Amino acid sequence: MRFFETRGVRLRRLASVRCIACDLDGTLLTRTNEIHPDVVEMVAKVRERGIRIILASGRSDTFTRRYARQIGSTSPVISLNGALVKDSEGSVLFSSPLASEVCAKADEVSLHPESEGLSWSLFTPDGIVSLEEAPVLPRYLRSEKQDIIRVGDLRPYHTSTVLLCAGGGYRAVQKLSVAIARRHGRRLQRSMYQSGSGQDLFYLEVRNRNITKAVGLKHVLDAMDIERRQCAAIGDYSNDVEMCTFAGVSAAMLNGIQELKLVTDYVTRLDNDEGGVAEFLRIILEGRIR
Questions:
Q1: Where are the beta strands (DSSP E) in the chain?
Q2: What pLDDT does 2 receive?
Q3: Buried b / exposed e across 202-221, counting CB within 10 Å, b at 16+?
Q4: Engineered SS bond to 46: which of 33, 51, 190, 212, CB 3.0-4.6 Å?
Q5: Least confident of 72-76, 139-143, 161-165, 180-184
Q6: Mean pLDDT score of the chain, rounded to an integer?
């Protein structure tokens, strides 16, 4: 989409930005999940100018929405890396449900002796649905206790699931990953990784293949009647690459990965703990890089 766009062309769009898509962890938030005071101040200034702030995160809708309220944003929220988009009132603007057979496979695999201890949750527009009161989830996907919907049967939620997340020992999680891949692998993103605790605890996340933050952002822009070229974006990690490439102009955080820095138009001089987002917001307000 930006093959014929030079960096100079994209930077000239700073003066016409109407909204800014902002990643959460490593970007808006410090390492202690707080928002730097300079960022709070600059967010207020861009909002006074009529520029909308759109939070886009791999986190759950509830977690992301908490920070949207904190900065006073009334724009839609992009969560679960674009698999779910809700407006400020909590109504669904877009969701990308998995094929119900994918969720059914988890039910089937759980009956196998090697799957003992397997825990899985379904992320839906209504919340996180689980058979357990305290499901096994990676730290970044954990949400408020009241957001966990404990049920006796997951089948009614199969058709609305946008992310399946399983946790357990290596054998159980690997067995589920292989079982899902055999039938649906080409249509899905599967990510299996070990817990940072170093124990025999692994996680598997499953979502539709072509879902990214850019997909969610496109639906937000359509809803707000804003052109892509009037949108800016900022992030720090690989799940921000598509979003930053899609936006009219973009920035990577100083603490961001090299892959992202190579495709963005600007790299902040400050990291997330120093309020690097405020630096980019100031550039947008001034319409140019000093």
A1: 19-22, 52-55, 77-79, 84-86, 92-95, 119-124, 127-130, 148-150, 163-168, 188-194, 202-208, 231-235, 249-252, 266-267
A2: 55
A3: bbbbbbbeebbbbbbbbbbb
A4: 51
A5: 139-143
A6: 93
Give bridge partners of residue 217 from the DSSP assignment.
none
Which amino acid type is present at position 241? Answer: V
Tokens 């009614």 belong to which residue?
Answer: 156
Ramachandran angles phi, psi of 138, nearest 5°: -65, 150
Instruction: Find, among 84, 80, 81, the residue nearest to 96 by Cα.
Output: 84
Sign of CA dihedral 144, 82, 226, 23: positive
Q: Residue 245's closest CA among 256, 257, 261?
A: 261
Task: Go through the domains of the chain in sequence order and give each one's CATH number.
Answer: 7-95+211-286 (3.40.50.1000), 100-208 (3.30.1240.10)
SS3 at position 4: coil
Q: Side by side, which strands form the sheet with 52-55? A: 52-55, 19-22, 231-235, 249-252, 266-267
Give the C-alpha separation, 30 to 93, whole Å. Answer: 29
Residue 87 CA, chain-centre distance (Å), reads 15
Distance of CA 61 to the CA centre of its chain: 9
Structure-token match 């101040």, residue found: 41
CB contact at 8 A, 154 and 131: yes
